[in-house]
Amino acid sequence: MYSIDTSIYKRPEELLQNLIRFDTTNPPGNELPLMQYIDSLLTSAGFETTFLAKDPARPNLLTRLKGRGDAPPLLLYGHADVVTTANQKWTYPPFEGRIADGYVWGRGALDMKCGLAMMIASLLRAKAENLQAAGDIIFCAMSDEETGGNYGAKFLVEEHPEIFKDVKYAVSEFGGYTMYIDGKKFYLVQVAEKQNCSVEMTFHGPAGHGSVPVKNSAMSKMGKALVALDEHRLPVHITPVTEKMIKIIASHLPPPSNDYFNRLLDPAQTDEILEIIRDKTANFFDPLLHNTVNAIIVQGGEKINVVPGEVALYLDGRILPGFSDNDLIDELRQIAGKDCDIKISMYEAVKSHIDLKLFDMLSDILKQKEPECIPIPIVIGASTDAKQLAKLGIQTYGYLPIDLPQGFDFMKSVHAADERIPVKAMYSGTDAIYQVISRYEK
Ligand SMILES: [Zn+2]
Question: Structural domain boundaries of the chain?
Fold first, then answer.
């Protein structure tokens, strides 16, 4: 389908265009043709590769850049699948990979074919320049991140943990992009993520005939709980990474913003300040300071003339590092759950040990390029393959440096229509990843 030209590493935006042109919408994913393209690039440059697959149509691709053996291997990994574009209105076709207005447009431009392109380009450059890193650089292109990694990260961690032997640190999504506050440019480096937790609340009340008014029904109890969840946040928690992040931000902002950010760290004032800075920060900080739930599914009532004695509410819960599903249940009880059963139907616990050792090096790479920028460590509200790698004790840094213009909201573009990345950002991001490889040490 494509001519294989290993000098494409000098044109990372072209590499990204090629990756976007493989439709890897998951489900079904169908990552094989894309993986074969990456494989051709790597093998043409002299890399040895391995395919590991639970389903041959959905393989994972692995290679290694041999290092000097002075440090443990460093893992670069990224997912090749993307989310659907159904029911979205795009300016340009989402799998065309068009360049227009200084951007590469297409599904995966940000999440995260840009990252795969940056990693592949860096490896090809390292090979072309005979770079030997302190340790082996393991690169793994994975399938199936967007629906939980059963064919990708989860499969590899459970069935092939040997490929990650001795790895302590990894670089992947979902950080590295820019965010502006008061005109100051911050790079968000992901060092941890919240834990997924699905919660089921069941409400009970008198059942009966639809013709007789029923008071204090299961339905009305659920209604009260929903209103309570809308009106109250769960308790404030200042976790160590978020504290560090907010202190760095405060120290770089002029008044009154610096004062607002300092006061965010006082739990008695946190929620009030979040309202004050909400518009300016797109509500970015709220989920980093609370466990959260969103009501997603309500279930109850079968027949129009029968009052149900039981109804259920399903919540999407997200738990901060260092807390557990039991903490979430306690907090929900306080606010909305005194008169119901609460059950956890799914919980993906992630160990809370966060190792910031590589943060200074990653930060320094960005500062050398842009002395005015301010890298900050963040916990992200969403969830990625990092939780799977964490089971092997691997610390992932979400570090795909993406220099976005002011006013461009990364989170609003990811998974949405018109996902795109500045062409220039592909060059600076790729060089940053290359620097990671060359500067990585024990
Ligand atoms: Zn992603």
Answer: 6-174+384-439, 193-347
